[in-house]
Fold this protein.
Amino acid sequence: MAENYPIVSYFMVIFIVIRLLSTVGKSKPSAHSLPDKLADKLHTDLESIIAASADFGNIVRETPAAVLHPSCPEDIAALVKFTYDNDNSSVPFAIAARGRGHSVRGQAMARGGVVVDMTSLARHHGSGGGAAIAVSWSRQLGYYADVGGGQIWRDVLEATLRHGLAPVSWTDYLYLTVGGTLSNAGISGQTFRYGPQISNVYEMDVITGTGELMTCSPDENPELFYSVLGGLGQFGIITRARIALDRAPKRVKWVRMLYSDFSAFTRDQEHLISKNGRDQGDALDYVEGLLLMHRGPPDSWRSSFFPLSDHPRIASLVNRHKIVYCLEVVKYYDDLTQNTVNKDLENLFQGLSHIPEFVFQKDVAYVDFLDRVREGELKLTAQGLWDVPHPWLNIFVPKSRISDFNDGVFKSIILKRSITTGTVLIYPMNRSMWDDRMSAVVPDEDVFYTIGFLYSSGFDDWQQFDLQNKDLLSFCEDAGIEVKHYLPNFGNEQEWRRHFGSKWRLFRQRKARFDPKMIFSPGQKIFNRNQSI
Ligand code: FAD
């Protein structure tokens, strides 16, 4: 945790104010001063600045002027209001909420501005920092949790499990903040059935670009509610979210099956996600997939799954086919269903076309399944391999073109270059589980695939992965495959306009309404006016 140097912070506040006043010059700002209590919470020590200048991607660096460690939502509101009130025509400094900084292209950075460390709110929840994690029930909603925007999902899981409950929609990795994933979508193998995390929110508290703290839901301030979900941090800072909960299972049956034939693999995935009724007993709870390629062992850092004794025969299968497709599914169970879960799985697997002798099964605790990536993270951290560049690319590909994508990208670009050392994920989801009123953008087909190229690289060779990313996107462009980016990163308005398509006008209107001075999340480079204090 960063040290606090209140005296330095105090001078920095004065510096911000002086710069602010000189920036706005003739426009005669209302010249509110920063509330005294904020001075101690604005950090300018090297450690804070360095931490806020980098992210998980380790590719982009932007230096903020200060980092706010709020202890309650009102601290953030005061900072935003100060910024908003002090200029009528231009932005004095930008503000970026930062969750865990697990973006890969500087999305939570604010050059010359103020980064708000949202996890600081979570640390202060006992002392007035707003919602910690409170579980409740109502006749209308059933069980739900009110969760601070800076809470990490791992803590949400732990707190809700104490009540025998859990959220239904997850990300693969749980050390991400609620505000951070809701600003994107929050996807994983549960999305086909429960929708992304943004589809499982009932209500939020949001600080808008005028410094107003507003509660929003589908019934109250709905425009703000739908803007913020998937809104890339552009419309406000989420300080509380009300998340849907369900009864938590105890354990999971976790199964992987291998395919050499891509069309059999996708046919089976699509069949399995077609059984997606919320109350459907014969549906799976999680469907993902990944590529096994002829470089490296069958297991990746993200999860060690295959028994060691099976590694040689899996490796030989992969060597033979160059790419093997691995279906990964999970069915939850508890005391009530432990006697029927195997039969249910048997029924679900009937008619699947995987290679019969390559089926692997595990039976693990629900928590261990959800937290499966953590072990890999700790291992990589110990080896000094976690904090390296991550030139990731995540895209959504329409189902109708997934076979062309396999031929042109997996079998051609990826296989031939043979530089891919990270995980490549591929799994389908149902568009009906996404709400088009929200800001998130997905392809215009009932079923689409998410493809995640989750590379790690050295500090001096990430460009070759970037080049590969560019080339595969060019291939899609030339082939007319209309992909949409997840966790997008574009350099100019034209690309953003294209990304949002028919939603662009609305996105802009919402920005003008909720953040008229374009204060928030400049690192997304959508509306950034690039001003520094
Ligand atoms: P940050 O990177 O800190 O912020 C992301 C954006 O949201 C920034 O623009 C920031 O300004 C804004 N923001 C942050 N907090 C708030 C807030 N409270 N209110 C408003 N705006 C805010 N994503 C998935 O969907 N599924 C996965 O399975 C998945 N796995 C991942 C695994 C790893 C190892 C990593 C590193 C990332 C993974 N991601 C996954 C991506 C992740 O969801 C996003 O990068 C997310 O933004 C990270 O959350 P964060 O808390 O670190 O947000």
Remarks:
- The chain has three domains: 7-119+513-524, 124-247, 251-486.
- Residues 56, 96-103, 107-108, 118, 149, 171-173, 176-177, 179-181, 183-188, 232-233, 237-238, 487, 521, 523-524 surround flavin-adenine dinucleotide (CB under 6 Å).
- The CA atoms of residues 415 and 519 lie 43 Å apart.
